[in-house]
Structures are given as structure tokens and as C-alpha cells.
Amino acid sequence: MKDSALGHRGVRKALAALLALLVATILVGFFWLPQVKPDFTAGGLWDAICRIAGVPSTWSTELKMDDPQASRVSMVAGLQGTAGGDVGRGGTLALRCTMCHGARGVSSSDVPNLAGQYAEVVYKQLVDYKNGQRRHVLMQALASGLSEQDIRDLSAFYAQLPRPSPAPAPTPVPRLVTVGDPLRNIAPCASCHGGIDKKPGSPWLEGMSHAYLSTQLQQFASGVRRNDTLQAMRNIARQMTPEEIEAVARYYSVLAIVGSAGSAPAR
Ligand code: HEC
Ligand code: HEC
């Protein structure tokens, strides 16, 4: 043999190409990316090395799973319907709620309606306020004094109150409501909130105030509200533009004529 393996032209070329690639990845990983995206260096040298090698750095670090604001409530079948509550007792307890949520659970201000809200939703939100997983000064203070049975009774009471009657759907209906956006992984709102399908724990939205709906969506987007199980709403709201939030909030807020009582549609 005339040439050793290393002296062979093809092999030398391959080694040179490999070296060039290594230099390029080092330049990109250590210098270019940190410059265009300053948060790339936030993780330190190890993260930078992992990025260059193309492996997740979390193999070496513990995943942060324990968010104190993550909900502890699981959607069990027993919560649906009446949440195991007593409507009569709930009605008496609800006298403390009427000044904000309305005499019959329909608010004329930006406070959310409770009339006809699913029992499991009222239950979950009250437990989340009580335990501090959903933050709101007034509601946390009010919920902290409620017992588990109080919460079940209030949920049963509000679930059976008639919802405001629906107004004709405004045209055009936002695409996100009926179709979603598969490219951004947004499922249609109606596939969880009713219309196409109703997933347990998804609130009845129609007739809530525009300001309330858009604030909640903004809070999910920014992570201020984080009590949605499995990030169901955060994953969606983060992807939405301010215009889209505005459009869906408008759509759901005008879908009901607040104040005119109809009967709650069957679950
Ligand atoms: C002082 C006014 C006030 C009173 C009294 C009050 N609430 Fe509220 N409630 C609010 C406001 C404001 C919100 C929206 C808070 C937020 O943005 O998280 C709210 C939210 C809620 C929600 C969440 C609704 C949803 O769609 O997510 C529930 C459930 C609720 N209240 C139940 C009650 C019950 C039951 C009582 C009586 C024991 C009560 N509230 C008394 C003002 C009040
Ligand atoms: C995968 C199911 C799912 C889809 C799709 C979905 N939602 Fe939700 N949404 C939920 C659940 C579950 C909650 C209750 C979160 C919690 O437990 O606090 C919620 C809560 C909300 C709330 C807060 C309401 C309140 O009273 O607290 C708003 C507003 C909302 N969703 C709007 C939307 C809009 C608008 C869309 C479409 C762009 C949408 N959602 C799509 C499941 C969904």
C-alpha cells in the first residue's frame, strides 16, 4: 500500500470538513446565538455546550415540576352535575355573593357570571382561590372562609340558575372558535367550551363581559394565571395575537343578552 489511511485524499477532505463544521458550530453556539438571543447564555457554559452538541441540557438538571400556582383539583366524575352539593343551602350561602355576581348570578359589571356555570367549574375555581392557586385579592379572601361542603353547595346552586338567553351569534364567527389553528397547535375554543364538545372543567363563556374574558386570556398568556390543568389555556393564549384575543372576547361577550333570563341548556 502506497498511502496510509490518513494520507488518503478522501479521508483528509472528510477530516477537514469535520473540523470546519466543528469550528462553525462553536462560532454559532458560543458567539452568534448569544449575541442575537441574549437569554441563550442565561443557562451558563454547560447549556451552551449542550446546545452545540444538540442534546437537551435538562438531562443533567432536575425538571422544575412543582409550581405552587398549579391547580391541585382533579376533574373527577363526581364533580359534574351538582358537585355533590345541596342547592337550598347553596342559595343561602350565595347571599354573600350577590352584591358582585348579581342577585341571580348574572353580573351587570365586569365580574364573571355564575348563573348556569358548570358545577365542576365553580368548584374548581373556588378551591383554587381558597388554596391560592388562582390569585385575586377579593376572591381569595372570600373563598378562604368557605368549607369544602360550602363550595359544593354553592356550585350546585349556581349550576341550576338560568343562564342569560343567547343572542344570535354575531357574524363572522372568529375562525379560532370553530376551526382553531392547527399550525399553531390551537384547538377550536368550541371543542372544549361547548358548541362542538364540552370538556370537563372548561367554563361556560357566553355572556361574560368583554373585559373579563380578555383579561383572563392575557393573564393565561403572561402566566399570571396558571391554575389551568396541563396548561390547557396557557398553551393557547400564548399563541394568540392581541387582535385575536380581542375578537374572541368580543364574540363570547355579545353571545348572550345579559339580564334577560332564559333556561340553562342541557349539559
Ligand atoms: C366583592 C365582589 C365579589 C364578591 C362578594 C364575590 N365575588 Fe366572586 N368574583 C369577583 C371577581 C372580581 C371575580 C373575578 C376574579 C378574577 O379575575 O380572578 C370573581 C370570580 C369568581 C369565580 C370564578 C368564575 C370564573 O368564571 O372563573 C367564582 C366561581 C366566584 N367568583 C364565586 C363567588 C362566590 C361563590 C361568592 C360568594 C361566596 C363570590 N364569588 C363573591 C368578585 C366577587
Ligand atoms: C383543550 C381545551 C380548551 C380549548 C381548546 C380552549 N379552552 Fe379555554 N379553558 C379550558 C379550561 C379547562 C379552562 C379552565 C381553566 C382552569 O381550570 O382554571 C379554560 C378557561 C378559559 C377562560 C377563563 C374563563 C373563566 O371564567 O375563568 C377563558 C376566557 C377561555 N378559556 C377562553 C378560551 C378561548 C377564547 C379559546 C379559543 C381560542 C379557548 N378557551 C380554548 C379549556 C380549553
Automatic annotation (TrEMBL):
Spans traversing the lipid bilayer: 14-33
InterPro entries attached to this UniProt entry: Cyt_c-like_dom (IPR009056), Cyt_c-like_dom_sf (IPR036909), Cytochrome_c_Oxidase_Subunit (IPR050597)
Domain Cytochrome c: 85-162, 175-256
Highest rank taxon of the organism: Bacteria
Keywords for the protein's UniProt record, in alphabetical order: Electron transport, Heme, Iron, Membrane, Metal-binding, Transmembrane, Transmembrane helix, Transport
Molecular functions per Gene Ontology: electron transfer activity; heme binding; metal ion binding
Keyword S-adenosyl-L-methionine: no
Keyword Cell division (UniProt): no
PANTHER family: CBB3-TYPE CYTOCHROME C OXIDASE SUBUNIT FIXP, CYTOCHROME C4
Protein name: Cytochrome c4
